[in-house]
Amino acid sequence: MPKLPPPLENPYQVLHLERGATPEEVKRAYFTLVRQSPPETHPEEFKRIRAAYDRLRTPEKRRETELFLVKLEEQEVDFSLLPSQPPSLDREQIITDLLRLEAERLWERLRADLEV
What we know:
Blueprint: H1 11-14, H2 23-36, H3 43-56, H4 59-74, H5 91-115
Helix pairs in contact: 2-3, 4-5
């Protein structure tokens, strides 16, 4: 899989976890890494860790992240063409929009298959 820009990084890799990690394992990994890279001394690494944790800490965000990761695995995507941080867009909004668009495409494909 290609190297992703920070807003799209695999949160499991950032937190050094397997995809099936439990919520307790996610929380434990987060706090372990924050102790190793506190915001006062490692602000950029802390931002990566916090963003990864935010994408896995609630069931809703975790489902969105899982869907996104599955779609990435199915497709060859060149993320080097994307800016690492769009100037005026929120990272979470970008991910949400990407997931919504993909869901709409899948729904259209499913509807077309059912009509045949």
